[in-house]
Specification:
Layout lengths: L11 E7 L9 H13 L2 E8 L3 H13 L5 E5 L10 H5 L5 E2 L1 H15 L9 E5 L2 E6 L3 H15 L24
Helix pairs in contact: 1-5, 4-5
């Protein structure tokens, strides 16, 4: 079975920035993802900024995973090694299946940009309830690396030989939420 579809399928995406300091006005990483998603033709159905609190992050991501209108959740921030970084601990327990290659490929691409510092990235992805969940570091550069190197193509139904779109639950009718 071919996983390519020559017709573009816009996806419904929720974007979460995990940060103790950013606001909508200063969140260049989340805004970068929103801009790229919209430019590509996807629909941003929700956007949120939460402090790095594993239980609040887990609750928000779980809500989006349970929402039939959300097909993809992108998170930025909280993937490093400081005491406050808890995005992997917050979200990984929600995943039905990990996509190990996502973090591996992200670090491989990132190595070309930042060298061995990439080992401190705990970027990861997985599937939960038919929803693609991807978590990347909080810098705008890291978001650009993830978008240009992985996400843009894997979220495009026309990408061959395969992409993530066939694995996602078809979206229910939805309205934009904040």
């Amino acid at each position: 079975m071919s996983h390519t579809n020559k017709v573009f399928v816009p996806l419904n995406v929720a974007v979460l920035t995990v940060s103790d300091t950013r606001t909508l006005e200063t969140d260049t990483s989340g805004q970068y993802l929103v801009d790229q998603l919209e430019k590509e033709g996807h629909k941003v159905v929700a956007r949120q900024i939460l402090q790095d609190n594993r239980y609040q992050v887990r609750a928000q991501v779980a809500q989006w995973i349970a929402d039939d209108s959300v097909q993809v959740v992108l998170t930025t921030g909280g993937t490093g090694f400081t005491d406050r970084d808890s995005t992997p601990e917050a979200i990984e327990c929600l995943l039905d299946r990990r996509i190990d290659g996502f973090g591996e490929l992200f670090r491989q691409i990132s190595y070309e940009e930042i060298g061995t510092s990439t080992i401190q990235s705990r970027a990861f992805a997985g599937l939960a309830n038919g929803t693609l969940v991807c978590s990347v570091p909080g810098s705008t550069g890291a978001c650009r690396t993830a978008w240009e190197g992985i996400l843009q193509k894997q979220m495009d139904s026309r990408q061959g030989p395969c992409n993530m779109v066939p694995h996602l639950t078809p979206a229910a009718a939805c309205e934009t939420r904040g």
